[in-house]
Amino acid sequence: MRSGRRGGRMLRLFGLVAVGALLAGCSPQVGPDDWTLEPIPFETALGRTDFAFGMHQLATDGSGGFWASSGRSWLHVGGDGETLAMFSADDGDPLAGIGAMAALSDTEFVATRSTRVPVLSVLDTTTMKWRDLPGEPPVSSDDFGDFAFGDVAVHEGDAILVRYQPRPPDAYLDYQVLRVDLDDGSRTLLYSAPISLGDAPDSFPGVPPVDVDADADGRIYLATPSERIVLDAEGAVLSAEPQSADHPRVSVRPDGTALWWGGEPEKSAIRGVTIGGSAEAQEAIAQREDCDDVYRTDALWLSDGEAQHPLPFLCGANAAVWTGDSWVVAIGGEGDGVLVRLTPPDARD
Which secondary structure element, helix H or strand E, spans residue 320, and what is its range? Predict the structure, then answer.
């Protein structure tokens, strides 16, 4: 990867994006029970913007900031909002083929990559050097080895990895949840369940997505096209709620409070207030209050260990991650992407 050429690459990446000036003026009134939604600005070769190409992978950097990526494009924003890095990976660079990623420490993250076979790797962000973990080849007609990887999370130095296994001749896969030791690559199967190839038809010809995250106590959260599942650290089911989702997502803060994307929107007394940002970013956020008018229609829900609550904003997120004292949520696609800092009322000073 050669970041010295980032100016030209970013001109190509953001050449069709109107940078615009960020709005100034009176801030909207935020009540004590309101959630706040704040577009996150960052520096590009064309200037400062909060409205650009949609990101599809997010990971905390362990210091209150985050990494964001989509295809070959990478962005690192620090905890104070400073743009620490922005570049486009070269063709053939491992950074150009990330499937999923999660923070391991403030200088490392674990990622799935697509080569001839799926690979689980650890990236040192100070040197941008990769360390690949050993894979598992097919061992029989009933065991396809590392057929495909899904999402990945991290807990206490281990990766929590979603892996898919075909079940011929049925039109089903098994998705497995593996705990992977990131020192030696050894694996423990925690959970397995079937998933229909007909689930989440928008994902075809890819496999139906299963999203994963973990809280500080090691509980594992799974968002599938048909369920929201919580496992204990050993893989036993603690709860399972039905849903219907094309692009299921889950993001958990350390105490187990979770955001889920899936299913139809419902009326809610909860209010979200957008603060700051450009007119373009504000409009993109406002459009996602109505799940009918966006490409990804999965509604946002909150679970707090006692109940699930509909949240009337940010339908159809690409990705989300808890970092510092808020979630960062990526929405939008080419030409209308926004990174949103989503802060719940109990996390505000």
Answer: strand 319-323
Question: Cα separation of 170 and 175, whole Å?
Answer: 14
Other Cβ atoms less than 10 A from the Cβ of 299: the count is 23
- On whether the CB atoms of residues 285 and 331 are closer than 8 A, the answer is yes
Omega before 242 cis (within 30°)?
no
Tokens of 91: 């063709």
Do 316 and 310 meet the contact criterion of CB atoms below 8 Å apart? no
Q: In angstroms, what CA-CA distances link 73 with 9, 16, 41, 229?
A: 9, 15, 16, 32
Given a contact cutoff of 8 angstroms between Cβ atoms, the answer to whether 10 and 46 are in contact is yes
Where are the alpha helices (H) located in the chain, listed in sequence order?
6-14, 279-287
176-206 pLDDT tens trace: 999 999 999 999 999 999 998 778 777 766 7
Please work out, in degrees rounded to the nearest 5, the angle formed at the alpha carbon of residue 74 by the alpha carbons of 68 and 79: 50
Tell me the per-residue pLDDT of 270-307, one tens digit each, with 9 for 90 and over: 999 999 999 999 999 999 998 887 888 899 999 998 78
122 forms beta bridges with 110, 131
% helix / strand / coil in the chain, to the nearest 5? 10, 45, 45
Burial class (CB in 10 A: 0-12, 13-18, 19+), 46: middle
Residues in the chain: 349
pTM of the model: 0.90
| Token pair in block for residue 46 | 């064309």
Supply φ then ψ for residue 81, to 5 degrees. Answer: 90, -5
Check whether the bond before 205 is cis (ω within 30° of 0): yes
Name 86's bridge partners: 75
Alpha helices in 256-344 (DSSP H): 279-287
